[in-house]
Amino acid sequence: MRKILVLTTMIALLFVTSFILVGCGGDTSTPSVPASTSGTSSSLVEVTSTEGINLKIPSKWVRQADGIYIDKQTGENVAFDVVDAAGNQISTYTEDTLLNTYQGAYKNVAIKSFKNGLQLNGKEALQTQITLTTAEGDDLTLTLVIVTDGTKNYLINFTNESANTDGSLAKYLQACIDSITIK
After folding, report:
1. Which stretch of DSSP H or E encloses residue 168?
2. How far, CA to CA in Å, does 37 sit from each of 4, 31, 42, 44?
3. Calpha distance 59→33 (Å, rounded)
4. Terminal-to-terminal C-alpha distance of the chain
5. Cα dihedral sign for 50, 53, 56, 59?
6. Over the Cα atoms of the chain, what is R_g?
7. What DSSP designation does 28 have?
8. Residue 15: per-residue pLDDT
Protein backbone atom coordinates (compact mmCIF):
# COMPACT_ATOMS: atom_id res chain seq x y z
CA MET A 1 0.00 0.00 0.00
CA ARG A 2 2.80 2.40 0.89
CA LYS A 3 4.52 1.78 -2.46
CA ILE A 4 1.27 2.58 -4.25
CA LEU A 5 0.97 5.89 -2.40
CA VAL A 6 4.60 6.79 -3.11
CA LEU A 7 4.05 5.93 -6.76
CA THR A 8 0.85 8.03 -6.81
CA THR A 9 2.77 11.03 -5.49
CA MET A 10 5.53 10.56 -8.04
CA ILE A 11 2.99 10.20 -10.87
CA ALA A 12 1.37 13.47 -9.78
CA LEU A 13 4.79 15.10 -9.96
CA LEU A 14 5.48 13.48 -13.32
CA PHE A 15 2.18 14.89 -14.59
CA VAL A 16 3.13 18.41 -13.47
CA THR A 17 6.60 18.02 -15.00
CA SER A 18 5.18 16.71 -18.27
CA PHE A 19 2.75 19.62 -18.40
CA ILE A 20 5.68 22.02 -18.19
CA LEU A 21 7.88 20.14 -20.65
CA VAL A 22 5.33 20.17 -23.47
CA GLY A 23 4.93 23.93 -23.10
CA CYS A 24 1.68 25.67 -22.45
CA GLY A 25 0.02 28.99 -23.07
CA GLY A 26 -1.60 31.03 -20.39
CA ASP A 27 -1.60 34.19 -18.40
CA THR A 28 1.48 36.25 -19.22
CA SER A 29 1.28 38.61 -16.28
CA THR A 30 4.31 38.87 -14.07
CA PRO A 31 4.25 38.30 -10.34
CA SER A 32 3.54 41.66 -8.74
CA VAL A 33 4.89 41.42 -5.22
CA PRO A 34 8.48 42.70 -5.15
CA ALA A 35 11.06 40.91 -3.05
CA SER A 36 13.66 42.43 -0.80
CA THR A 37 16.25 44.57 -2.55
CA SER A 38 19.24 43.22 -0.67
CA GLY A 39 21.73 40.68 -2.01
CA THR A 40 20.63 38.14 -4.60
CA SER A 41 16.98 38.69 -3.72
CA SER A 42 16.92 41.94 -5.75
CA SER A 43 16.03 39.94 -8.88
CA LEU A 44 13.48 37.73 -7.18
CA VAL A 45 9.77 38.19 -6.52
CA GLU A 46 7.57 36.38 -4.05
CA VAL A 47 4.69 34.23 -5.31
CA THR A 48 2.08 32.15 -3.48
CA SER A 49 -0.03 29.34 -4.89
CA THR A 50 -3.64 28.69 -3.93
CA GLU A 51 -2.33 25.51 -2.25
CA GLY A 52 -0.27 27.60 0.18
CA ILE A 53 3.21 27.23 -1.30
CA ASN A 54 5.14 30.47 -0.98
CA LEU A 55 8.54 31.06 -2.62
CA LYS A 56 10.67 33.57 -4.47
CA ILE A 57 11.33 33.17 -8.18
CA PRO A 58 13.22 35.19 -10.83
CA SER A 59 11.34 38.39 -11.55
CA LYS A 60 11.18 37.91 -15.32
CA TRP A 61 9.25 34.63 -15.06
CA VAL A 62 5.57 34.85 -16.02
CA ARG A 63 2.58 33.00 -14.62
CA GLN A 64 1.20 30.24 -16.85
CA ALA A 65 -1.36 28.88 -14.38
CA ASP A 66 -1.68 28.62 -10.62
CA GLY A 67 1.55 27.02 -9.51
CA ILE A 68 3.37 27.29 -12.86
CA TYR A 69 5.80 30.07 -13.73
CA ILE A 70 8.11 30.15 -16.76
CA ASP A 71 10.83 32.21 -18.41
CA LYS A 72 9.48 32.37 -21.95
CA GLN A 73 12.92 33.02 -23.44
CA THR A 74 14.85 30.17 -21.83
CA GLY A 75 12.07 27.75 -20.84
CA GLU A 76 13.30 27.69 -17.23
CA ASN A 77 10.33 27.12 -14.97
CA VAL A 78 8.89 26.08 -11.66
CA ALA A 79 5.76 24.04 -11.08
CA PHE A 80 4.23 23.15 -7.74
CA ASP A 81 1.51 20.86 -6.54
CA VAL A 82 0.15 19.39 -3.31
CA VAL A 83 -0.73 15.74 -2.65
CA ASP A 84 -2.06 13.89 0.36
CA ALA A 85 0.73 12.59 2.62
CA ALA A 86 -1.35 9.91 4.36
CA GLY A 87 0.78 6.76 4.31
CA ASN A 88 3.15 8.48 1.92
CA GLN A 89 5.88 9.96 4.09
CA ILE A 90 8.78 11.52 2.20
CA SER A 91 11.20 9.91 4.64
CA THR A 92 10.50 6.65 2.76
CA TYR A 93 11.51 8.07 -0.64
CA THR A 94 14.76 6.74 -2.06
CA GLU A 95 16.83 7.36 -5.15
CA ASP A 96 15.31 4.20 -6.63
CA THR A 97 11.80 5.59 -6.07
CA LEU A 98 12.66 8.62 -8.17
CA LEU A 99 14.58 6.70 -10.83
CA ASN A 100 11.68 4.27 -11.30
CA THR A 101 9.25 7.17 -11.63
CA TYR A 102 11.15 9.00 -14.36
CA GLN A 103 12.77 6.13 -16.27
CA GLY A 104 9.46 5.01 -17.72
CA ALA A 105 8.87 8.36 -19.42
CA TYR A 106 12.36 9.73 -20.16
CA LYS A 107 15.77 8.59 -21.40
CA ASN A 108 19.19 8.99 -19.75
CA VAL A 109 17.71 9.53 -16.29
CA ALA A 110 20.41 10.12 -13.67
CA ILE A 111 20.35 11.47 -10.15
CA LYS A 112 22.96 14.18 -9.58
CA SER A 113 22.10 14.67 -5.90
CA PHE A 114 19.65 13.27 -3.38
CA LYS A 115 19.13 14.59 0.16
CA ASN A 116 16.35 13.30 2.35
CA GLY A 117 15.63 14.17 5.99
CA LEU A 118 16.37 17.86 5.48
CA GLN A 119 14.72 20.73 7.32
CA LEU A 120 13.48 23.63 5.22
CA ASN A 121 12.05 26.54 7.17
CA GLY A 122 11.02 24.22 9.99
CA LYS A 123 9.46 21.50 7.81
CA GLU A 124 10.75 18.04 6.83
CA ALA A 125 12.01 18.13 3.25
CA LEU A 126 13.66 16.20 0.45
CA GLN A 127 15.78 17.74 -2.30
CA THR A 128 17.05 16.00 -5.41
CA GLN A 129 18.45 16.96 -8.77
CA ILE A 130 17.80 14.73 -11.77
CA THR A 131 19.04 14.95 -15.35
CA LEU A 132 17.09 13.38 -18.20
CA THR A 133 16.43 13.51 -21.92
CA THR A 134 12.92 14.08 -23.28
CA ALA A 135 11.47 12.19 -26.25
CA GLU A 136 12.25 15.29 -28.33
CA GLY A 137 15.94 15.04 -27.37
CA ASP A 138 16.06 17.94 -24.90
CA ASP A 139 18.52 17.45 -22.04
CA LEU A 140 16.94 18.82 -18.87
CA THR A 141 17.82 19.22 -15.23
CA LEU A 142 14.99 18.89 -12.71
CA THR A 143 15.46 20.08 -9.17
CA LEU A 144 12.71 18.62 -7.04
CA VAL A 145 11.95 19.81 -3.53
CA ILE A 146 9.27 18.05 -1.49
CA VAL A 147 8.23 19.63 1.80
CA THR A 148 5.76 17.99 4.17
CA ASP A 149 3.64 19.19 7.04
CA GLY A 150 2.72 15.60 7.93
CA THR A 151 -0.67 15.70 6.24
CA LYS A 152 0.28 17.00 2.79
CA ASN A 153 3.36 16.80 0.58
CA TYR A 154 4.17 20.02 -1.24
CA LEU A 155 6.06 19.36 -4.50
CA ILE A 156 8.14 22.12 -6.04
CA ASN A 157 9.89 21.29 -9.31
CA PHE A 158 12.40 23.61 -11.00
CA THR A 159 13.28 22.73 -14.62
CA ASN A 160 15.96 24.06 -16.94
CA GLU A 161 17.99 22.96 -19.95
CA SER A 162 21.05 21.14 -18.64
CA ALA A 163 23.37 23.22 -20.85
CA ASN A 164 21.96 26.53 -19.55
CA THR A 165 24.42 27.30 -16.77
CA ASP A 166 24.06 31.08 -16.87
CA GLY A 167 20.27 31.52 -16.76
CA SER A 168 18.35 33.05 -13.89
CA LEU A 169 17.57 29.62 -12.43
CA ALA A 170 21.23 28.67 -12.32
CA LYS A 171 21.97 31.98 -10.63
CA TYR A 172 19.13 31.97 -8.09
CA LEU A 173 18.19 28.30 -7.58
CA GLN A 174 19.43 28.04 -4.00
CA ALA A 175 17.80 31.35 -3.02
CA CYS A 176 14.51 30.10 -4.52
CA ILE A 177 14.76 26.84 -2.57
CA ASP A 178 15.71 28.58 0.67
CA SER A 179 12.67 30.86 0.35
CA ILE A 180 10.10 28.03 0.21
CA THR A 181 7.53 28.17 2.99
CA ILE A 182 4.23 26.38 3.47
CA LYS A 183 1.21 28.25 4.78
Report:
1. helix 168-178
2. 45, 16, 4, 9
3. 10
4. 29
5. negative
6. 15
7. -
8. 43
Give the integer Cα–Cα distance in Å for 161 and 133. Answer: 10
Q: What is the identity of the amino acid at 90? A: I
Phi-psi region of 145 (alpha: psi -120 to 50; beta: other; left: phi over 0): beta
Q: Residues 6 or more apart from 145 whose CB is under 8 A from it? A: 120, 125, 126, 127, 155, 156, 157, 158, 177, 180
Containing 177, the helix (H) or strand (E) segment is: helix 168-178
The full set of domain ranges for the chain reads 2-182
Over the chain (183 residues), what is each successive 10-residue block's mean pLDDT?
37 45 38 38 83 94 93 93 87 91 93 96 96 95 95 95 91 96 91
User: Helical H runs in 25-143?
Assistant: 95-103
User: Distance between alpha carbon 79 and the CA centroid of its chain, in Å?
Assistant: 5
C-alpha 132/C-alpha 95 separation (Å) is 14
Specify the pTM. 0.79
* CATH code reported for the domain at 2-182: 3.40.1000.10
Nearest to residue 17, comparing CAs of 101, 114, 108, 118? 101
| Residues across the chain | 183
